[in-house]
Amino acid sequence: MLLPFAVFTRNRTLCNLLMVWCLGALAALILNYEMAASELFSGPFWFYYFPHVMEFGIPILLFRLGLVEKSYRCIGSTLTITMLIYTGIHLINKLINGWCLANQFSYNGTDVVKVNYMFSIEPTNPLSALFYSVIPCEYWYMYMVVPIVALYLLAVYSPQLLARRKAKKAAPAA
Questions:
Q1: Any residues with CB less than 8 A from the CB of 144 and at least 6 apart, and which?
Q2: What is the spatial distance between Cα 174 and Cα 170, in angstroms, rounded to a whole number?
Q3: Can you tell me the distance from the alpha carbon of 73 to that of 173, in angstroms, rounded to the nearest whole number?
């Protein structure tokens, strides 16, 4: 939902945030085995894959085309906003699942609808299952992604960080 705002405003903080979230979209494309079973030209296929492909590609294009500046100063805000949004999504998952269970809401007449956005409720793929084996508690197990994301951000911003460090060393002491 933030993607249109990022494209139109080219807000540095938002775009740098989406540079991480595009990896989440890629992971959702690759690791969602439930959607992999959907038919190629079905509604669920288009409503799932098309937005995730856009969520993956557009932030990368914004940076590659020079429309937005990469900024290492956004690392903290990126991690903080991501954790806050993850927490909000988990609460939304719990509300939707609670309502669906209480009202026996089903999509096929037999199975009660259960959502698991951002994999916060339970693991659904080998990677999230690995995280869950280390921290066997819904919501908390996905926090194992934070160090991975931090390392990714350090790698992405390493040219800027190294240039800044080099500039500091080269600057004469006052």
A1: 131, 134, 135
A2: 12
A3: 24
pTM: 0.83
What's the chain's length in residues?
174
- CA dihedral angle for residue 119, residue 121, residue 123, residue 124, rounded to 10 degrees: -70
CB 16, CB 78: distance < 8 Å? yes
129-138 pLDDT, tens per residue?
Answer: 999 999 999 9
User: 104-118: per-residue pLDDT in tens?
Assistant: 999 888 899 999 999
Q: Helix, strand, or coil here: 130?
A: helix
Please, are residues 11 and 69 in contact by the beta-carbon 8 Å criterion?
no
Neighbour count for residue 157 (Cβ, 10 Å): 19
Residues 29 and 52: their CA atoms lie apart, in Å, by: 7
Kindly report, residue by residue over 47-68, the tens digit of the pLDDT.
Answer: 888 999 999 999 999 999 999 9
Residue 62 CB coordination number (10 Å):
21
